[in-house]
UniProtKB/TrEMBL annotation:
Protein source organism: Streptomyces olivaceiscleroticus
Annotated region described as Disordered, given as residue ranges: 323-344
UniProt protein name: LacI family DNA-binding transcriptional regulator
Keywords of this entry: DNA-binding, Transcription, Transcription regulation
Lineage of source species: Bacteria, Bacillati, Actinomycetota, Actinomycetes, Kitasatosporales
InterPro entries: HTH_LacI, LacI/GalR-like_sensor, Lambda_DNA-bd_dom_sf, Peripla_BP_I
Residue ranges occupied by any HTH lacI-type domain in the UniProt entry: 7-61
Amino acid sequence: MSAQRRVTIRDVASRAGVSRAAVSLAFNNKPGVSDATRARIIEVARTMGWEPNRSARALNRHGTGAVGLAICRPARQLGLEPFYMEFISGLESVLSAHSSALLLRLVRDVDEEIELQRHWWQSGQIVGSVLVDFQERDPRVPALSRLGLPAVAVAHPSLAGPFPALWTDDGAAVAEAVRYLHTLGHTAIARVGGRAELGHSALRGAAFEDTMAELGLPPGRQVDTDFSGEDGARATRSLLAGAARPTAIMYDNDLMAVAGIAVASEMGLRVPHDVSLLAWDDSQLCRLTHPTLSAMGHDVHAFGADVARRLLALLTGETQPSRAVRAPALTPRASTGPAPHRAD
């Protein structure tokens, strides 16, 4: 698939048969071109997919360029989610050192992101992007690669298409967590996951199923959520109110695990005496709860910084092969313990 070269003001001027100055006058609604010429220039630019760069780009003249990041999350939820706060902090720590800036936007869906990335790139507001939350057969891959947009994918290479990928081995981490709970005597283990269409959620779900089968355990129930505390609480309540109540629950982020502790208390269950809970990402939240949360964690700030460094290297023409960073590691704390003895 060949990349589409970014259209420039020179291209528009040539196609319209005018000077670059005339294109600038037309788009800034300044005198110097006739109404007919202005209309022709604007129509030519529209058909070519060119837009003027009206952004300050958050740069000084020595800067590298602004980097785009679009996230499909409600604003209130994003502010509560430790992973993205740490990840963005890591990105900024590197970008700011290169006089660059992060252009962050929340979007409703993948179609809105494609249009946003197209607008950012063609109008010159960004020099590249960080792409997150990949779906299986993600429509962003063909659309944005055709644009020639330089980008680093935070995803498994099987999801990232031609974009260089940086990822954590979530499958290995899930397997470690299941085996740890099994050594504590747990055989009824459940998982509260993220959105089913997300690639990393699917990879974690498959690893959970495979490891349960490998250990000779009955299939554990998995519940999909939107990653919010509210949805995590609903999922926990559903699991703990069921006839076959799990003795251990794994969560796909810290926020839902914290909500799980509250639900267990609400239902008169003691953590970990009656049910063990295990979180993901290991933010400060895990050490502030009571009991403290066992978690699969990695240095998310360092991960974000590494993603930014790889994108900046890509922009200088360096080849950036896809690679995995260290898999999340288990930190046991007070929320996990031996499986309770049951009369049945």
